[in-house]
Design brief:
Bound molecules: adenosine-5'-triphosphate, magnesium ion
Helix content: 40-55%
Radius of gyration: 18 Å
Low-confidence stretches: none
Mean pLDDT: 90
Order of helices and strands: EHEHHHEEHEEHEHEHH
CATH architecture: 3-Layer(aba) Sandwich
Number of domains: 1
C-alpha cells in the first residue's frame, strides 16, 4: 500500500469523456500558479493523454519499466532496486510539477508482484511531493492499480445530464467498496450550458442529498478549451481570466485548503 507521508492525494473519477483529464490539467495549472508545489501528476489511464493537454512528450512509461524489470534485472540486483533506479527515467519534469505515466496495465499472469513492487516504489517517490494528482480512466477499479491507501479529495466529474449526475452519485458510492479511505468527494458538473438549466440544478441537489458527495460547482462548456484542443496546445497556457479557468480555480480553492 502506498503510505502517503505528507502528499495530499487528489484523484479524478467519472464516466468516460466527462472531462477528468481536462480538469486534471486545470488543477495542475491551479496548484502551480498558487505555489502549492511540488506536484506529481500521475496519468493512470492505460490510454494516456494527459501529457498532450500539458504539452509534454512521454519517453517511457512506468509500465514499460515494470516490463523491463521482469527480464532485464541484472544478477545481484533486486527487482525493487531495479525499479527504484529506473523510475526516474519515467518522471517527466516540467515547471512546478512532474508527470508520471503509468501506461498499459499488466496482462494476466504475475499481476500481484509487479504491482506491489510498483506500489512500493511509488510510495517512496510520492514522499517528495506536496500534491499527488491521479487522473483515471472511467471506472473505479483502476484506482486500485495504484494501491493508494488514502485519497484526500476525490473529484467526481459529471456531464450536464440527469443520468450523468446519477452516475456520478453511483461512482461516489462505489468508492466504499475500494480499500481506500476517501476524505471528501466533490461533484463537478462539467460542460454546462449557460444559463444553467433549473432542472439540472434540481438533479444535482437531489444527488448531493442522497450521497456523501459535496457539490463543488459548475464548469461551463468552453470555447477556449475547444480551441486549445483543436490546436493541440497546452491547457496550461489558457489565460487566468478565461471563464473556464476561473470557474475551475474557484472550485479548487474551496476544497483544496492546505491541510
Ligand atoms: N468545459 C469544457 N468545455 C469544452 N470542452 C470540454 C470541456 N471539458 C472537456 N471538454 C472536451 O471534452 C472531451 C473529453 O474531455 P476529457 O478527455 O477531459 O474527458 P475524460 O473524462 O478524461 O475522458 P476519458 O474517460 O476518455 O479519459 C475533450 O475533447 C475535451 O476537450
Ligand atoms: Mg481522461
Amino acid at each position: 500500500m502506498v503510505q502517503q507521508t505528507g502528499a495530499n492525494v487528489i484523484a479524478m473519477a467519472g464516466k468516460g469523456g466527462t472531462g477528468k483529464t481536462t480538469l486534471t490539467a486545470l488543477l495542475i495549472k491551479y496548484l502551480v500558479s498558487s505555489n502549492m508545489t511540488p506536484v506529481l501528476a500521475v496519468d493512470a489511464d492505460a490510454n494516456a493523454n494527459l501529457n498532450e493537454l500539458l504539452g509534454l512528450e512521454v519517453d517511457v512509461t512506468l509500465g514499460e519499466i515494470r516490463d523491463k524489470m521482469k527480464t532485464e534485472t541484472p544478477q545481484g540486483m533486486t527487482k525493487n532496486e531495479f525499479m527504484e533506479l529506473h523510475i526516474n527515467q519515467a518522471v517527466i519534469e516540467a515547471t512546478g510539477f512532474d508527470l508520471l505515466v503509468m501506461g498499459q496495465p499488466e496482462g494476466p499472469g504475475c499481476y500481484c508482484m509487479a504491482n506491489s513492487i510498483l506500489a512500493q516504489v511509488m510510495e517512496k517517490l510520492a514522499r517528495n511531493y506536496r500534491y499527488l494528482l491521479v487522473d483515471n480512466e472511467a471506472g473505479m477499479e483502476h484506482l486500485s492499480r495504484l494501491n493508494l491507501r488514502t485519497i484526500h479529495t476525490l473529484f467526481v466529474v459529471s456531464d450536464p445530464s440527469s443520468r450523468g449526475v446519477l452516475t456520478a452519485a453511483r461512482i461516489a458510492d462505489l468508492t466504499k467498496a475500494l480499500q481506500v479511505d476517501v476524505g471528501k468527494k466533490v461533484l463537478i458538473v462539467n460542460r454546462v450550458p449557460e444559463p444553467i438549466p433549473q432542472a439540472l440544478d434540481k438533479h444535482v441537489q437531489n444527488a448531493v442529498k442522497q450521497t456523501d458527495l459535496e457539490f463543488g460547482g459548475y464548469v461551463s462548456a468552453s470555447d477556449d478549451i475547444f480551441q486549445k484542443e483543436m490546436a493541440q496546445e497546452s491547457l496550461l497556457d489558457l489565460p487566468e481570466d478565461s471563464q473556464v479557468v476561473r470557474q475551475a480555480f474557484d472550485i479548487f480553492s474551496k476544497f483544496l485548503k492546505e491541510r
